[in-house]
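User: I'll paste a sequence; please echo it back and then give the predicted structure.

Assistant: Echoing your sequence first, then the prediction.
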Amino acid sequence: MTSLVGLHRVLEPAGVLPQAAWRLDARPEIAANEVRIRVERLNLDAASFRQLWEKHGGDGDAVRAEVLEIIATRGKMQNPVTGSGGMLIGTVEEAGPRSPLGLRPGQRVATLVSLTLTPLVVTDGLARWDGRSEQVPCEGHAILFARSIAAVLPEDEDPQLSLAVLDVCGAPALTARVVSRYVADRAREGDARPVTVAVIGGAGKSGSLSLAAARRAGAARTVGVVPVAAERDALTAAGLADAVALADARDPVAVSTAVTTALGVPADVTVVCVDVPGCEHGAILATADGGTVVFFSMATSFAGAALGAEGLAADVTMLVGNGYVPGHAELALGLLRAEPGVRRLFESRLAAD
């Protein structure tokens, strides 16, 4: 029986969903409710790429070899250490007659579901990738299920740029939702306090979009926290935050001090967009009682976050950014088009890669 969520593609262990599976069936033949994509480019998630890069000491050939091994062994791209994957762009080759995704052969699309649950085969040995960047040109095929999500790529944007934006489009969408609720609640209650937002990793892809989304949703004051002077200067020039602060996200006191100094108060909403472990306690300490911390990093230890909040007696709500909010692709692409600072940061990042 063909499952809407891809259970029929799970090879081992039996009974789990594709994301939790160790190995998937990535054969190219599709069921009536599936879609096959001819893959053009993968976008590895930041935490996964960083782990592979550090493990192999910056040896791009070794990184490439391990990515190939993971895909060949597991039938999907899921880093066994971080548990994360990424996403891809490609062209629809075949759509089953009962697929609800509305895709047609020939359309160029970005998958908005993780590579950790997407059956994937690579056929070119990643010969055009040097193993030194998150974006991976490749040839092969991938399978989308009935409950998968994909967005047709805009024809007026560079596909690599669109891929980079859509890879993190859940972050600005959830940030906007959380911030707008704070703004609406305070207006309804007659509370004149401004809504304040801190984004840790504000110069990165998800961070820059989250800052733009927070401002558009009504945040009165925002601060971007970055680790080095070059990122501080880039984010300042982009004009996406009211203040930019230097702090190591793994140093709780430094992060809290930087945020409180920049905003004058702890943040109502703190968004974590960094790809290194050990950033949970700083985000919690920087957030006001009754505030919200949104974790978008796959490097987050959720046990560490829960126990850390308990140990700090912090009355904060903690949310896991799951990458999906209705309308997230349109919102992120809209920010790219409307905010020159967002575009500059993304284009400079792609140029550096």
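The domain at 170-352 is CATH 3.40.50.720 (Rossmann fold). The mean pLDDT is 95.
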